[in-house]
Amino acid sequence: MHGRPVNESLLLVEDDASIGEIASIGLKAGGYRVATAVDGREALARLRAESFDAVILDVMLPSLDGFEVCREVRKFSRVPIVMLTARTDTIDVVVGLESGADDYVTKPFEMAELTARVRAVLRRASAPAGQAAISVGDVEIDPAAFTARKGGVELALTATEFRLLLEMASRPGQVFTRELLLQRVWDYNYLAESHLVDVAIQRLRAKVEDDPSRPRLVKTVRGVGYRVDRT
Amino acid sequence: MPRRLMWAGGLRRRLVVAFVLVAGLSAGALAVGSYFLVREARLQGSRDLAQAEARVDLNLAFGIKAASDTLDPNGFVQGYEQRGVHVVLLFPGRRSVPSDPQVNPPLPAGLQRLVREGQLAYERMQVAGVPYLVVAGKAPNSNGQMYFFFSESGIGQYLAQLRNALFAAWAAVILLAGLVGQFLARRTLEPVARASAAARSMADGQLATRLPVMARDEFGIWAASFNEMADTLQAKIAALLAAEARERRFTSDVAHELRTPLTALVAEASVLRGHLDRMPDEARRPTELLIGDVTRLRTLVDELMEISRLDAGRESVQKQVIDVRSVVAAMLRIRGWEDRVELGGEQLMVFTDPRRFERIVANLVGNALEHGGPGVRVLAAKNGVHALIEVTDAGPGIAPEHLPHVFERFYKADSSRAGSGSGLGLAIAQENARLLGGEIMVRRDMAIGSQFRLILPLPDSSSVNNESSSVNKL
Fold it and tell me: Which residue of B has its CA nearest to A91?
């Protein structure tokens, strides 16, 4: 389609048989290879054993819920995760993002929505072509290697966090509105949940700042958005 | 409320006035009565004493000495004067002889007549400002008359003192009655004040309010029945609230349970939609209908869930400054309504929750598109401290009898028409508007059609700063 390598592999974790089946039909039709798991433990086992390009993870799972799976996965992998959340509460969304999910789709969803989100996280996770290394403060970003180091130590950033940092660090001093960040990092072309940005910023700060409660690198611009300083 | 307070004060004042009046009148009557009784007794006593003394003096002194014509009248009367009694001696046809020239008033004719007839008579009179009791009689065996002047100034002084004392006592009684009356009135009316405070507190929703049952008096009994009423009321309301909560929980549970199969349906329908053109003719139309109905079902379940969340009252509001026109424009674009809706008005920044705001306007526009027909317009304007977002349509307008009900759940102006709306859209819009501190008004304009107007508070600088700090917390 967009010249991307075909047959990227996805792990779909969903306990409802109908939803699981139709989602994998839809995703396969979109050109992905799809493996399925029906609960949290199985999902973790497969993720430890195999490598996937992205995970689609339902929140309401038997045995181990989606948030816990997410937190576990983040201990050993930066694989992009799209959460399937119930729309009951935005708390679900925030908790999901805080446990390390890259994006989310609320139930019920149309297949187009899901494939669009999957495509967006896959794009985020692929190394951007031809960008030179950048350093802000004591953080060095190497776009080609898709890594960032702080004081020489490699940071465990998710694809989303890395893209967010790269986006802002490419133009230090410039203020990014949430709307702009949603567009450039998450591929949303309308004002969606600003939680996506706010939670990702918070997680990013926890990793790149010396003192996350007094950020020196990733600054808040009151009433507007965020900014990365060169310092 | 001021009326009620005035009434309470009036009642207390009336009680005090009545108390003072009763006490003052009875104390006054007692004082006046006892004054006259004492006065009468003192005057009577003084008269009895004077008469006795006069009788003795007449018999003893005059009886012996007045017989002789050789008597020296001046010397005779001086003897009395030395004993402290003023006398006047009178022989008919002669000049009267006083013992004290200061006490020699013209003798009253009536008194003289009685004395001439041989009686012992008396009369009270003033001489040079001093009250005297004059007792007079004819000496035995003589035609000489003696007038004894007994001073009653002591009695007058005594009575004046008594008068003053009684008046002072009366005034004290009035004062005391006023104070006691005030105290008693307050004590008596205190339960009334308490009761009215309790009733007010119940009216304010403090259903646990009860009155203390202090005594087995009328107020005690009344307080007991008030408490009984409050118990019943509280139990009734608790039962109603529980029933309502059950009903809401049921709605919420139903919506939740529907969501899983609905998720599958929506995903399935969206996959089917991609295959429509490859379907045989006899399957295509049913599939189209199926897809449309899944969308309708989805809207209904979404809205049921939203309204049950709003009912639960646990909705959080995430406010930020938004540009009304760009949010509305984006909403129209996403929903594919761009070509059917005209967007106008001024540039307007509002401090509000963008998701809820978008939801409200989308519901209003959706409603206008469905029921109002063509010519839907969205207008943003500023009116003092409020932002106004008006959604108007060129439709026939809503009939006046339906206007008050358009925000009710599942209310449909035309019951025979099964629109694609769930019947919850406007109710949800209104609930969301209230959550944002605003309101939606509806009116019917014969010239235009229906007009829904969303009124929201405009931002001020302090709230904008709050927004940034809440973002930092996230």
Answer: B316
Give the gap in angstroms from C-alpha B407 to the nearest C-alpha of chain A. Answer: 23
CB A82 within 8 Å of CB A106:
no
Judged against a pLDDT cut of 50, whether residue B276 lies above it is answered with yes
Whether residue B196 is contained in a domain is answered as no
Count of CB contacts below 8 A, A vs B? 86
CA of A130 vs chain B CAs: smallest distance (Å): 33
pLDDT of residue B463: 47
Residue of chain B nearest A86, judged by CA positions? B259
Task: List, for residues A62-90, the tens digit of each pLDDT value.
Answer: 888 899 999 999 999 999 999 998 765 67
Could you tell me what percent of chain B has a pLDDT over 70?
90
Q: Quick check: is B203 in a domain?
A: no
Domain ranges of chain A: 9-125, 134-228
**In angstroms, rounded to a whole number, what is the distance separating the alpha carbons of residues A52 and B23?**
102
Mean pLDDT of chain A: 88
> Would you state the pLDDT for residue B61?
63
CATH entry, A134-228, from 1.10.10.10, 1.20.1290.10, 3.10.120.10, 3.60.21.10: 1.10.10.10
Whole-number CA gyration radius for chain B:
53
Report which residue type is found at B458: L
Facing residue for A88 by CB, picked from B305, B318, B330: B305
Q: Cβ A107–B467 below 8 Å, yes or no?
A: no
Nearest residue in A to B467, CA atom: A223
Domain encompassing residue B264? 219-308
Give the integer Cα–Cα distance in Å for B89 and B105.
Answer: 12
CATH architecture of residue range(s) A9-125: 3-Layer(aba) Sandwich (3.40)
The answer to whether the CB of A10 falls within 8 A of the CB of A53 is yes
